[in-house]
Specification:
With 339 residues, the protein is an alpha+beta fold. The chain has 11 helices and 10 strands. Helix 4 packs across helix 8 (266-274), helix 6 packs across helix 7 (253-260) and helix 8 (266-274) runs antiparallel to helix 10.
Length: 339
């Protein structure tokens, strides 16, 4: 994602292959509008050149804009938490995760943290935004389950940019994947304890001739029970990585560790944690106290966990490499991938 702040405050969001924001174009004069329309491909190419150059020069700390939800378009019923495609004021369409769904605010926090780490590591993932929902939003939806979720989601929620024309990744059909990219994704999911990128549920889309990572709400499962987090928790291996959908395609995981670990500096972790709204950190089910007394204490707990997980022996790397070698010596039969 690349954000350009214009003099009038308009944000241009340039995602691989996407068109320049038509709302921005409409605010230009008729003559300038026609120039942009004739040369959209040129401007997109130029933008992407400087975007990629900037990523080589310095790591990208993701931003997290806030948009007001204006229209509930359609639910995505294949998702266990019943996310939905929404339209927003000034931001376009997003796939929104709701704090009123069964997984609660913790799933939204995981989306922000893991999605932002993926962006920092230059892994392909849709840009994120905070989505504001009012009490009147979605009142006309006839489904009582959707109504219940929306009533419990008034305030801040989290959305990922809708990738128009994308389709679900299928490892039986899509077999040409860069081994280094696959290894990087496996490393990310082992680091973030993401249990939900399996052949049955890959949580990846294929868009603009490449894979895009989506739906990280099931990651960081330790934060659902902070009382059970001990000094050994951050150093633990991650056994479920053996089911990762990209293991058959991946190159060396220790090599991925050498590439990626050094990019996640403590100050970058702090910057990512600062993106999380206080109200999500302090959100807790009715009758249950938050795990910590303040948002800053929550952030400090996450910071300690991640710094400890990146240091020391990093058993999750060895577990992922062992799983990769086992999978590639005995690859899964094609029928096991079918959903």
């Amino acid at each position: 994602m690349w954000l350009l702040k214009c003099c009038n405050g308009v944000q241009l969001v340039c995602v691989f292959g996407s068109l320049i924001d038509n709302q921005f174009l409409s605010k230009l004069g008729a003559k300038m509008h026609s120039i942009f329309c004739c040369h959209k491909q040129f401007f997109n190419t130029a933008f992407m050149f400087f975007f990629l150059l900037s990523r080589k020069l310095r790591p990208m700390i993701p931003s997290l804009p806030t948009y007001q939800a204006t229209r509930y378009i359609t639910p995505l019923r294949e998702g266990g938490s019943l996310p939905a495609i929404l339209d927003t004021e000034g931001g376009g369409m997003y796939v929104a995760k709701f704090r009123g769904a069964g997984q609660g605010a913790k799933a939204l926090i995981a989306e922000i943290i893991v999605g932002s780490v993926a962006t920092l590591l230059q892994l392909p993932t849709p840009p994120l935004a905070l989505i504001q929902i009012t009490e009147s939003f979605g009142r006309t939806e006839p489904d009582p389950e959707i109504q219940d979720i929306l009533r419990g989601s008034v305030g801040i929620n989290v959305g990922a940019r809708y990738l128009e024309g994308a389709y679900n990744f299928d490892p039986v059909v899509i077999t040409e994947i860069d081994p280094e990219l696959a290894a990087n994704v496996v490393w990310l999911d082992a680091f973030s304890t993401n249990i939900d990128r399996t052949p049955r549920n890959p949580n990846m889309m294929f868009w603009n001739n490449g894979i895009w990572l989506i739906d990280h709400g099931a990651a960081l499962y330790f934060h659902h029970h902070w009382a059970g987090v001990t000094e050994s928790t951050p150093h633990s291996a991650f056994a479920p990585i053996r089911d990762h959908v990209l293991l058959p395609f991946a190159a060396s995981i220790p090599d991925a560790d050498a590439r990626l670990r050094q990019q996640i500096l403590p100050e970058y972790i702090s910057a990512i944690l600062a993106l999380i709204p206080d109200e999500l950190l302090m959100d807790a089910p009715a009758g249950v106290a938050p795990a910590f007394a303040s948002p800053d204490e929550h952030r400090q707990a996450y910071q300690r966990y991640f710094q400890q997980r990146l240091g020391g022996e990093r058993l999750f790397v060895a577990a992922a490499e062992e799983a990769r070698q086992a999978r590639q010596s005995q690859p899964l039969a094609a029928k096991e991938y079918r959903r």
